[in-house]
């Protein structure tokens, strides 16, 4: 009978030893999992220096950095995510400009300005359509298509801006709004070039 208590102590020691090694194994696995998650999370976001470098290839590097940093999604975005963010920013600007220009059509008293504003409204609606196609290209991973559609989306604001080259002067400064849209679209093009 003395032998049985010895086995119980032996089993307790074995269980304690197994429990201790299980805790160590579990801790090790959790540490590895944590490191993997940190590595994945780090690879999702784009570094500030990369953002600066990317923006240096756009029409307006300062606007690029400011615009992308204004969106909270940028902090965790990879290049594909930045592409969508830049599309969203350009589309919001183009939509605002299209609405503004459409309101000018009804206010214009000069027939030439009225025609230009009507033409610009159409140009910006085409731009918005091309930006929608940019979103589809990003979603499907068609980065050549993204490049092509970002170029197509430039046609609207460039055409609108060019229509104000001669008299009469545009009191609403639509050309300035066109240039901002063009600069935002140049961000999409810069990102597309990196993704191709």
Give the tags.
196 residues, 7 helices, mainly alpha, elongated
Short description:
This protein has 196 residues and is mostly helical. It is built from 7 helices and no strands.
Question: Termini distance?
Answer: 79 Å
According to DSSP, the number of beta strands is 0
State the order of secondary-structure elements, H for helix, E for strand.
HHHHHHH
Mean pLDDT: 85
Regions with pLDDT < 50 over 5+ consecutive residues?
26-44
- Note the main sheet: none
Morphology: elongated
Radius of gyration: 29 Å
Characterization of this structure:
The protein is mainly alpha-helical and about 200 residues long. The protein has seven helices and no strands. The protein has helices at about 5-45, 50-55, 60-70, 80-105, 110-140, 145-160, 175-195. Helix 4 (about 80-105) runs antiparallel to helix 7 (about 175-195). The longest helix is centred in the first third of the chain and has 42 residues, at about 5-45. It is elongated, with a radius of gyration of 29 Å. The protein starts with a helix and ends with a helix. Mean pLDDT is about 85; it is low at about 25-45.
């Amino acid at each position: 009978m003395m032998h049985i208590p010895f086995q119980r102590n032996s089993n307790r020691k074995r269980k304690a030893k197994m429990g201790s090694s299980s805790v160590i194994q579990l801790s090790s696995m959790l540490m590895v999992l944590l490191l993997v998650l940190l590595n994945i999370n780090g690879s999702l976001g784009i570094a500030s220096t990369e953002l600066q470098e990317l923006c240096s290839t756009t029409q307006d590097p300062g606007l690029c950095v400011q615009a992308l940093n204004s969106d909270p999604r940028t902090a965790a975005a990879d290049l594909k995510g930045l592409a969508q963010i830049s599309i969203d920013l350009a589309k919001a600007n183009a939509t605002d400009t299209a609405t503004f220009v459409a309101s000018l059509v009804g206010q214009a008293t000069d027939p030439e300005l009225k025609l230009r504003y009507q033409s610009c409204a159409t140009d910006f609606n085409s731009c918005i359509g091309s930006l929608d196609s940019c979103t589809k290209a990003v979603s499907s991973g068609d980065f050549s298509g993204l490049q092509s559609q970002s170029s197509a989306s430039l046609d609207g604001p460039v055409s609108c801006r060019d229509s104000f080259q001669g008299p009469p002067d545009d009191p609403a400064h639509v050309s300035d709004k066109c240039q901002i849209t063009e600069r935002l679209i140049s961000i999409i093009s810069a990102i597309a070039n990196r993704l191709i």
